Amino acid sequence: MPELDLILAPALAPDDLIGLELHFLDAIAARQTAPVLLIYASPGRCISIGRYHLFGAAPAHSENGISVIRRLTGGRVAGAGQGWLGLALIAPTRTALLMEDAAPVKKLKPEQIMNRYARGILTGLRALGIDCFYPGRDAITFKQREIAMCTFETDAAGAMLFEAAIAHNRGMEELVHDLERIDPDGALSCRMYDAASATKVVRELARDVSFDELAGAIASGYRSSLGQTRRRELTAIESAQAQHRGDALANSNSMHRPVAGASPTLRNRIASQLGAIEAAVALKADRTIEAVRLSGDFIANSPAIAQLESELRGHPLDLASVSHAVAKTFGDNETDNFFLGAGELSNLVRLIAGVN
Q: Which residues of 317-350 are buried (b: 16+ CB within 10 A; e: fewer)?
C-alpha cells in the first residue's frame, strides 16, 4: 500500500485549496509525491458549488460577504469556509489506497468507492461520540440528520480526488440562508434544511471543538481504515504552486462551461437523486447536435463528461443516437468513467433526448 502523507492546514485560502489540489493531482499521478490526505479549514463565509453547477460568477466570487468557490469535483452545493472542516484525499488511482487481505481490491463500482473513502470520517466522528452512518449517495448522517457531504473526481491521468465537507460549527441549515443572499433566483438547487434534517459536530457534542481535535479524530479514522500516515507540512514548492495555480484558474474562468456555438435550442431538466440535472442542447439547421452542456447536481469524472459531449456532436437528437453515446461513454465496465445522481443511465439518455 502506498504511504499516505497527512497535511493539516487550519487556514487555507479557498483559491489556494483549488490550486493545491490541481498540483497534487498532477504530482501524485506522476508518482512524484506520495498520496495525500489534506484536512483543512478556510477563513470567511463560503459556499462550495460543484464542478457542473451553472453560476455566472464562478469559479470564485464574493457577494454580500459570502464567497462562492467552484470545486474540482461534482455534486451538490455544500458548505465551506468558516465553520466547516474540509477534507481532500488525492491518490494516483481510485483504488490505490484500498487493499484487502494484502491484495488489491477487485474493481469497485463508483458508489463503493465513495463508501470506502467515507469510512475514515465515520471512524473519526464515532471516536468523538457521534455514531454517524454513510447511507449511500453523497451524505453522511447522524440520526438521519446530514452532518457531512462527500464527492469525488478522477482526472485524465486516472488520479483521484475524494472530497468531503464536515459541518463543524456551521451546518446545512446556515448554508440555505447564505444561498438566499447570493442566489435569490434559485439558480443553485438546494433542499430546505432545518434542525430536523441537518446537524453539526458542536451541536451533537454540546461543546466547542477545536480544529486540532476534529482534524485529529478524522486523521486517526483514516489511519484505521487506510493504514499508517506520515504527518508533514506543505513544502515551499507546494505552497507556491497552490497560489499560482489557484490564481490562474480563478482568472481564466475555465470551469464556467457555456454551450459552444449558438444559444441552446432546447433545455431539459429532471429531478435527480441529488437535486436536479439539466441538459442544454444547441442544434444546427439540419437538427443535428452542435453542442451539449450537462449541468447540475451530479458526480462524474470530468473526462467522461467531455467525452460524452464530444460523442453527441454531429448526431441527430434522438433516442438511438443519444443512447449509443451514453452507452459508449459510461456503459463499458472496462473504463473508470462514472455518472452518479441520475439513477439508471436510461434516465440520462431521456434527459438529453428530451423524452419524458
A: beeebbbebbeebbeeeeebbbbbbbeeeebbbb
Angle CA 170–122–273, to nearest 5: 75
Contact in structure between 224 and 45 (CB atoms under 8 Å): no
Q: How wide is the angle at C-alpha 21 spanned by C-alphas 273 and 42, nearest 5°?
A: 80
H or E element, residue 281? strand 276-283
Which pLDDT score, from 0 to 100, does residue 341 have?
95
Residue 343 cell numbers, joined: 439513477
- The fold for domain 4-252 equals BirA Bifunctional Protein; domain 2 (3.30.930)
Nine cell digits for residue 2: 502506498
Q: For residues 60 and 15, is the Cβ–Cβ distance under 8 A? A: yes
Under a CB-based contact definition with an 8 Å cutoff, are residues 255 and 153 in contact?
Answer: no
**Cα dist from 228 to 35, 98, 162, 220, whole Å:** 12, 13, 18, 9
Residues 223 and 1: beta-carbon distance below 8 Å? no
**Cis status of the peptide bond prior to 110, with omega within 30 of 0:** no
Specify the residue for cell string 485524465: 156
Query: Which candidate, 91, 73, 88, places its Cα nearest to that of 28?
Result: 91
**Predicted TM-score (pTM) of this structure:** 0.94
261 — pLDDT class (breaks 50, 70, 90): low
Domain residue spans of the chain: 4-252, 266-353
Q: What does pLDDT average to over the chain?
A: 91
In this predicted model, what pLDDT tens digit does every residue of 81-112 receive, in sequence order?
999 999 999 999 999 998 764 445 667 888 89
Who contacts 110 (Cβ-Cβ below 8 Å, separation ≥6)? 152, 299, 338, 340
* Side chain identity, residue 249: L
On whether the 266-353 domain is CATH 3.30.390.50, my answer is: yes
The secondary element (H helix, E strand) that includes residue 141 is strand 139-142
> H helices within 254-335, ranges in order?
302-312, 319-330
pLDDT of residue 313: 95
CA 16 → CA 40, 71, 86, 114, distances in Å? 11, 12, 13, 25
Give the pLDDT mean for 211-233: 95
CA distance 101 to 74: 32
